[in-house]
Design a protein that fits this description.
By secondary structure, the chain is of the alpha+beta class. It contains three helices and five strands. A hairpin with a 4-residue loop joins strand 4 (34-39) and strand 5. The longest helix has 14 residues, at 65-78.
Length: 88
């Protein structure tokens, strides 16, 4: 599962061909021992992160919404990926 972005100790990944597990476009996020899954509208659909990190992930998703949706399509159809600018 490729790392698509990293910022402030947060690692963001997206799986290839991953519609089966959550049935919606989404990312997997890890911060230390915390793990969560967010849909591409910024809603946490599984797991949890500390509040501060969750807010950062939600802001990052909002800023990069178009890129995330494009990346989802590319990864599901072509098994290719690109990285996305971290939160600054």
């Amino acid at each position: 599962m490729p790392i698509i972005s990293q910022f402030y100790g947060i690692i963001v990944r997206m799986y290839y061909d991953d519609m089966k597990q959550h049935n919606t476009s989404h990312i997997h996020v890890q911060y230390g021992s915390y793990k969560a899954v967010y849909d591409l509208s910024g809603k946490c659909i599984k797991g949890s992160l500390p509040k501060k990190q969750s807010k950062m992930v939600e802001a990052w998703i909002e800023i990069h919404s178009e890129e995330l949706n494009l990346l989802w399509e590319i990864m599901q159809e072509e098994n290719e990926f690109f990285t996305i600018e971290p939160l600054k």
